[in-house]
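Hi R.,

As promised on Friday, here is the backbone we talked about, encoded as structure tokens. Could you run it through your design pipeline when you get a chance and send me back a sequence?
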């Protein structure tokens, strides 16, 4: 009976992905005694209603006696909005099932509050990909960091003469822009900003940028001032920080929970050596170069025993390319 509600809640969470920071992208589904779907809700942008409140408002009186399935344990604190656990109680919900516990000490405890009110509460152990960056960021107190790169089969991002456009296919580049829409910030180093004059925005197939309110923040790390020289970033607006630690602290304090590092080998290596990479997003092209620019600058390990290893958590074929998603072990 819960299967359809779980799928509906997960789908609602996916719709909110990239729009809710610093809040998590949560989905909620309400069903009646027969398992029929009553209402669905997803978390609104920061300051707006949480998923449970959206679903309850859609349901109205039909929520009384219903079962709620939520991708994250209902919150139990008052921030910009009231506690969702209490809203579920007030609406007369009979049972609540959640997929992931809330790691935030200020907001957790919703499940117990529901139990204390006589509501049936259960945990459904199910992976929620859209929540993983937020969950890790909340535990670490810094943004979740994904390093993204496109490379040849033999591990090069550019040929000997420096040419790199385009190693991957149009399909892969389209996927990259869809992914950018879900990130809170895109980060590059000063060398990339000066050499490539990037826009660091998300664009449609025809090159038209998506609306500015959907765009990730554009961030440059390094001591060289790139304002003016990086014309696209100067025109669109960007933030610059001298160090990685400074950038991550400022971004987290300002609500960013999921950031993407697209800078070159030097910046990627710096993040890896600092132990700050939580995930890798690798686009693998069916190209052999033999030599050229490597993916990561500088040595990371002298022996295999010292090497940091990542776990494959997802893969997707994009034309003749492959996208490989890895998480830090």
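Update: got your reply. Pasting your designed sequence below so it's all in one thread:
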């Amino acid at each position: 009976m819960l299967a359809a509600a779980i799928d509906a809640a997960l789908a609602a969470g996916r719709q909110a992905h990239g729009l809710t920071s610093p809040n998590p992208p949560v989905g909620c589904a309400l069903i009646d005694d027969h398992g029929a779907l009553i209402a669905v809700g997803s978390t609104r942008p920061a300051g707006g209603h949480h998923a449970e409140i959206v679903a309850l408002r859609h349901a109205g009186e039909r929520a009384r006696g219903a079962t709620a399935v939520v991708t994250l344990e209902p919150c139990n604190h008052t921030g910009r909005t009231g506690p969702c656990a209490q809203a579920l109680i007030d609406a007369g919900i009979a049972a609540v099932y959640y997929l992931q516990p809330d790691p935030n000490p200020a907001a957790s405890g919703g499940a117990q509050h529901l139990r204390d009110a006589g509501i049936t509460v259960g945990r459904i152990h199910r992976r929620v990909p859209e929540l993983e960056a937020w969950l890790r960021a909340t535990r670490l107190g810094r943004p979740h960091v994904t390093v993204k790169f496109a490379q040849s089969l033999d591990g090069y991002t550019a040929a000997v003469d420096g040419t790199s456009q385009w190693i991957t296919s149009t399909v892969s580049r389209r996927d990259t822009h869809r992914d950018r829409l879900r990130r809170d910030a895109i980060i590059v180093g000063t060398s990339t900003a000066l050499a490539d004059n990037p826009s660091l925005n998300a664009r449609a197939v025809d090159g038209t940028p998506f609306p500015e309110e959907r765009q990730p923040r554009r961030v440059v790390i390094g001591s060289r001032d790139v304002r003016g020289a990086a014309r696209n970033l100067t025109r669109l607006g960007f933030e610059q920080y001298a160090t990685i630690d400074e950038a991550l602290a400022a971004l987290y304090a300002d609500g960013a929970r999921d950031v993407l590092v697209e800078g070159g080998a030097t910046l990627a290596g710096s993040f890896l050596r600092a132990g700050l990479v939580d995930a890798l997003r690798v686009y693998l092209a069916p190209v052999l170069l033999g030599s050229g620019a490597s993916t990561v600058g500088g040595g990371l390990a002298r022996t295999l025993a010292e090497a940091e290893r990542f776990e494959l958590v997802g893969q997707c074929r994009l034309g003749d390319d492959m996208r490989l998603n890895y998480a830090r072990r």
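One thing I noticed while checking it: The chain has a mean pLDDT of 90.

Thanks again,
M.
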